[in-house]
Amino acid sequence: MAAIPYSSLPLQFLFFLLLSGSFLQTRTLSTDQTVKTFIFRIDSQSKPSIFPTHYHWYSSEFASPVQILHTYDTVFHGFSATLSPDQAASLSRHPSVLAVIEDQRRQLHTTRSPQFLGLRNQQGLWSESDYGSDVIIGVFDTGIWPERRSFSDLNIGSIPSKWKGVCQVGVKFTAKNCNKKIIGARFFSKGHEAAGGSAGPIGGGINETVEFMSPRDADGHGTHTASTAAGRHAFRASMEGYAAGVAKGVAPKARLAVYKVCWKNAGCFDSDILAAFDAAVNDGVDVISISIGGGDGISSPYYLDPIAIGSYGAASRGVFVSSSAGNDGPNGMSVTNLAPWIVTVGAGTIDRNFPAEVRLGDGRRLSGVSLYAGAPLSEKMYPLIYPGKSGVLSASLCMENSLDPNLVRGKIVICDRGSSPRVAKGLVVKKAGGVGMILANGISNGEGLVGDAHLLPACALGSDEGDAVKAYISSTANPTATIDFKGTILGIKPAPVVASFSARGPNALNPEILKPDLIAPGVNILAAWTEAVGPTGLDSDLRKTEFNILSGTSMACPHVSGAAALLKSAHPDWSPAAIRSAMMTTASIVDNSNQPMTDEATGNASTPYDFGAGHVNLDRAMDPGFVVTVTADSKNLVLNDSGAAFGSISWSDGKHEVRSPLVVTQLDPL
Fold it and tell me: What is the mean pLDDT of each run of 10 residues along the chain (670 residues)?
C-alpha cells in the first residue's frame, strides 16, 4: 500500500505515534529473542478513528513498520510480522487480537485428461462455455514459464474489464511476459525472506542461485498446474515421445492470473499465501486453484488455518476455491484442506498408461510403468541385485552414498520405494555404475504406480511384483533381468481408479462433512513445463522438455479449477457453492467398465472416503437438474460459542427455489 506522508497526518495522531513508539521499543526487550513470523487476525471494527488506515494502526500499536511483512484487508483483517514468541504472546492479550497463528511452511502436493472428464470439441460444456472465455483463474503455485505455447494469446479477446491486477516485473520477467492469456502475475516472498533470516525451525529462505525473484517458474510445478487448468491447444505435444498428441487445458480460453507463493526447494509460507488470497480477490479472479497443503497429517481448526481463512474470505466474495487433497494416501484420515467452503480434490487414473515390463531370467514377465526415453537395454539380460539383502535400510532404499560400486556396477539394481524421490534413487544407481533400476513398492504403496522420466532404464513395480523379483533373487544362483519399454497405451480399463497416493477421509475435524469432495485426473498428466530444470527436477538432469508428465493431487486440483471456469462461463449467475453442487451431484462412482470404482492400493472397491462424491463428469455437470448454493449471513464468518458457523442454504431447479438455515459445526470457537 502507498505510504501517507507524516506531514499530512493530524498532530494528535503524531503524538499518539510517539507514545506507542515508546511502547514498541519497550516491548522488544524480550527474554526469548528468537524471531519468528506470526499472523495476527484483528477485529477491524476496533480501529481508533484517529488512525487514517489499518496499516498505521498496526504499525504504531502492534509492531514497528520494519517488522510488518503483509497487511490483509480483503479475505480477512490483520497483518503478519516478525516478532519474538514473547512479543507475540504479549500482543495476543490485546483486546483487538482475535487469533495469533505462527507462520508455517507448506508443501506442493506434487493430454488426454480433458476428454476423460467428458469434454468434446465443439460439443457440450466446451461449446456452451466458449472454452471458459473471460473467466479468470488465479493459480497459487511456483510461478509460470510464459513462453510456452500453452500460454499463447493468439485469437483471444481483450482482457476482461473487471480485471484490476498487475504484471509484476522482476528477474527475467518483464511486462511483455504478460499478455491476453496471462493477464497478471505477482510474486510473494516476504514470508520466505523472514524465515531465511531466522534461527527458528523453519528457517531457510530463497536460494537465488536457482530461483528467479519474479513470477518466473524455476520449479516447473506452477507451469504444469496452470496449463492443466487453462492451457491453449498445443499440437505435436509429448514428453520425449510419451503421450504424443494435442495438449490442452480444461478451460483453454480462460485467463490466467499467476501468484507465485512457492519457491524451489523452499515450500510455501502461510503469510505469503494469505497475501496472495488478498491480492487475488482484489484483482478480480473468479477461481483460485491452490495445489498446496500441510501434508503432515495434522489439521488445524479452521480459524487457525490460513488457507481455510483465506478461502472463506474468497468464497464469501464469489470466488470458487479448489485445493488438492494431499498425497499421503492410502492412509485413512490423511486428507488435508478440510474447510467446507473449499472444494478438496483427490486423484484418479485416466485410460492412458505407459507400461514397461521386467523380464526375468526364468522367463517370467512382470508388468510395471516407466517414462524412460533414453537408449534401451535392447533385450540384453543383465545381472540382478537387491542391496536390501544386506539388511541395511539405506541400501535397500538406494539412498545417497549407500551403494557399493563394486557390487552394483554393470547390474540392474532393485530399490525399495520411499524416503527419497523415486528419480533420485535412479541417479544413485547410475552414479554407482548400475545399468538399470527396478523400483519396488512396499505394502504402504500397494499396487499404485506412477511413471517417472528416469535418467537410466528403470521400471516401477507394484508390491506383489516387487516381492516376486526379490524371491527370484533369493532362490537363484545367478539372477538376471532386462527391462522392455512399451510406450503409450490408450483405452486402459478399468479407469478411473482411485490413485493409491490420493489422501483419504474421513475428515479429521468434522467427520460428518465428507472429504475429499471428489476426485479428478491426477496420474501421469501431460502439461507444460519450465525451461529451468529437466523433467525429473534434479539438478543433474540437463534435459529440456516443453511438456512433462506428473502425478499427484496437485495435478487433479487444476482439473477442477478449469472445470469451475467452464461452468462459471456457461452459468455466470452460479455461486461457488452452486458450481460445486453441480460437480458433486453429477460425479460418477463407476469406471469405464460400468463397475464400481476400485482402489489402486488394494484392488478392492473404493468408498466415499476415497473418492468423495465421485469422479468429475463435466458432460453431466453442465445441466445437473438442480443446484444447491450456500451463502454467508455476513461478510465475516459468524461463530457461536460452540464454534458453529451460520449461513443459509438454498436449492434451485431453475423454476423453484427453497432457502433454509445452514449450520456447519467446528471443533473450536473463534
Answer: 42 39 38 80 91 93 92 94 93 94 86 49 59 87 97 94 97 97 97 69 68 96 96 92 91 96 91 97 98 74 92 95 93 92 96 95 95 93 93 90 94 92 93 96 85 94 94 94 95 94 92 94 94 90 93 95 94 93 95 95 93 92 86 47 42 48 36
Does the active-site annotation cover 475?
A: no
Q: Determine which one of 192, 221, 224, 571 is catalytic.
A: 221
Confidence at residue 651, expressed as pLDDT on a 0 to 100 scale? 52
Looking at residue 196, its pLDDT comes to 75
The per-residue pLDDT for 443 is: 83
221 is catalytic: yes
Q: Which pLDDT score, from 0 to 100, does residue 295 have?
A: 54
Q: For the CA atoms of the chain, what is the radius of gyration?
A: 26
Q: Give me the amino acid identity at 150.
A: S
Give me 325's grid cell.
Answer: 487433497
Q: What burial class does residue 250 get, using C-beta atoms within 10 Å of its C-beta: 0-12 exposed, 13-18 middle, 19+ buried? A: buried
Distance separating alpha carbons of residues 553 and 527, to the nearest angstrom: 14
Do residues 336 and 552 lie in contact, with contact meaning Cβ atoms separated by under 8 Å? no
Residues 231 and 223: their CA atoms lie apart, in Å, by 10
Contact 315, 82 (CB under 8 A): no
From the candidates 316, 551, 554, 561, which is the catalytic residue? 554
Assigned C-alpha cell, 500: 493409491
Angle among Cα 266, 271, 275 to the nearest 5 degrees reads 110
Closest CA to 385 of 425, 438, 426: 438
C-alpha cell read off for 277: 488470497
Pairing outcome for strands 547-550 and 382-385: unpaired
Main-chain dihedrals φ then ψ at residue 190, nearest 5 degrees: -65, -35
The contacts found for 570-577 with CB under 8 angstroms, 24 or more apart, are 570/125, 570/128, 570/129, 570/622, 574/627, 574/629, 575/318, 575/629, 575/630, 575/631, 576/315, 576/318, 576/319, 576/320, 576/321, 576/341, 577/315, 577/341, 577/628, 577/629, 577/630, 577/631
